[in-house]
Amino acid sequence: MSISLPLLLFFIVVVTSGAATDLPMTAAADLPFPNELAKTLSQTPTNFTLPPISQSPQPSAPAPAPPLPGPLVPALFVLGDSSVDCGTNNFLGTFARADRPPYGRDFDTHSPTGRFSNGRIPVDYLALKLGLPFVPSYLGQTGSIKDMMHGVNFASAASGIIFSSGSELGQHVSFSQQVQQLADTVQHFILQMGEDSTAKLISQSVVYISIGVNDYIHYYLQNESGVQKLYLPWGFAQFLASNVRQEIKNLHNMFVRRFVVMGLAPIGCAPHYLWEYNSEEGECIEEINDEVMEFNLVMRRMVWELNRDLPDGKVIFCDVFEGSMDIMKNHERYGFEVTSDACCGLGRYNGWIMCLSPEMACVNASSHIWWDQFHPTDAVNAILADNVWNGSHTNMCYPMNLEQMVAQTGRP
Fold first, then answer.
1. Strand ranges (DSSP E) for 96-135?
2. Residue 326 lies in a domain
3. What distance in Å separates the CA atoms of residue 390 and residue 392, rounded to the nearest whole number?
4. Residue 342: beta bridge partners?
5. How many domains does the chain fold into?
6. What is the pTM assigned to this prediction?
7. Do residues 312 and 257 make contact, with C-beta atoms less than 8 angstroms apart?
8. Range of 82's domain?
9. In terms of Cα–Cα distance, which of 400, 344, 397 is closest to 372?
10. Looking at the domain assignment, is residue 94 inside a domain?
11. pLDDT of residue 27
């Protein structure tokens, strides 16, 4: 194994410190929450000047096998964090990047693309189920409407619902900025296709949202700005859900009618926290998982309210915690041998230092649940995508799964 000492020491600081560098941010939503937090959340927009890149990143969306004849929806639009980033952060000045080996070693191209996995991420599997090609990164596009007709991925690793969540790692595109990028894309479609054709395309497409984990990893759990004194876990979850609700309503005003909202995974079982909290035998950190479950419960209630308030829309909530815990509890049935140790990393549970080189990775990632400190393997992503699609392993989506939603709303 060959890792330079300065690089290793840097990542030791990044992983173990709770101090975040103050980076610019946009104004927070007008919501009822303490003024102290409002001041923290209200700053100026991020500068998106692209940093020097040591090498050209691999394409974020290489063409897979040809999609099925007649896609079930016109397009798939993705917003979120590293769970669904397919290459956005390749173009940003950040340490939250997955554009170096061994990331992507088991992907279709056997090369890194910016996906935080050894292979595919859930939206790759769902795109194929919908009869679509892999969805490309927004920042990797040329601006051609042809390149965006089947969807765009706006997700950015380290991003959160709170603008500054994850900012200690560098630049990212926050959730509210991603929504604005989608709004810009819709306007681009209108200019090229007209409003009626755009409204039809967008309303029949699916918007997939996977966001919120960094608001816990990089904000609440680190008690940034004394947030734990301002909010108990339940109140913090409601604050986050209120922001997501408003952004979904904003998307609804842009013709979006089909939403898939993902809950949070059991990050208390992630190798990093097993290492940080000195888990004795790989048992999950329950105090963290309790907060995740509260967030998911609040989000599920929020989705129920949206379905009530937006009668012409369909919003489904998928409880990733529920699906992931089923995998962990029944790992042998799913074919997993290693449940606590990451395939790639350093330290106990491979949770101390992030995945930096091929020499740090295990031989067979498919036998592991976790790929690195925080992200699951391709094999887990495939199972979770199956559950989102039709609940083939665990019914974790409410009030219906994606296949049922598409069937109810009809094909284009």
1. none
2. no
3. 5
4. 370
5. 1
6. 0.85
7. yes
8. 70-321
9. 344
10. yes
11. 34
